[in-house]
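Record 1 of the preview.
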Amino acid sequence: MAAVACMTVLSTAEGHVSLLSPCPRKGPYKGCQAPSSGQPDYDITAPIGVYGETIKTTYQIGASHGGGHCQWALSYDQGKTWVVFQTLIRKCLQNVPKGGKYSVNVKIPDGAPSGDAIFMWLWNNAIGNRELYSNCVDVQIKGTNGGTFTGV
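->
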């Protein structure tokens, strides 16, 4: 596991890319729980799902820059360490027009431990200046008590 900082990137149509679903921290989207007093939403009472479940993630695109690499990770220690469990090389967000939406199915790994976690999505563009975008979602995994999983 590598230590990675989890940043919250808010985007509107002028931005480049933002996780639309599941609702990211400080998600300004319809149906997302609004944070109180300008603070991030740390309410994890609505589980993302059980281990092995596939979640449809959706992104709002401002500029896809020819696509690029996407990774999805989980952290069980408040973002100090991460395990990347799914990667999409080169084709993530490819050919999505400005203002469009993009969806990817992400599978929570078999054996993922039960508990509070942070679900992170990260994108590195293919064309133009090197840009890195990321969103985090506070989740509760209903997995395996004492479970483990591996990844980068």
